[in-house]
Design brief:
Radius of gyration: 13 Å
Distance between the termini: 14 Å
Shape: globular
Low-confidence stretches: none
Number of helices: 2
Number of strands: 2
Structural class: alpha+beta
Largest sheet: 2 strands, antiparallel
Helix content: 25-40%
Mean pLDDT: 87
Length: 68
């Protein structure tokens, strides 16, 4: 998690969408829940930005996303 991600969220979402597109996925819906408290700290961070993607993607391409 990057503490300043909120300031540069567009860059991060563009990167995620590019990774999905490069792997044959089509983004059908993006739901930005914003900044929320984590259930537990991760690397001393208590907050995260949640963005949920709904995608259409061939099942054979899912394995390639596991590397990210």
């Amino acid at each position: 998690m990057i503490p300043d991600l909120e300031d540069d969220l567009e860059k991060a979402t563009s990167r995620v969408e590019k990774i999905l597109a490069d792997n044959g996925a089509k983004v059908t819906n993006v739901d930005n829940w914003g900044k929320r408290k984590l259930a537990y700290s991760i690397n001393k961070h208590d907050m995260a930005i949640y963005v949920f993607y709904t995608v259409d993607m061939p099942g054979t391409n899912v394995q390639s996303l596991k590397a990210f």
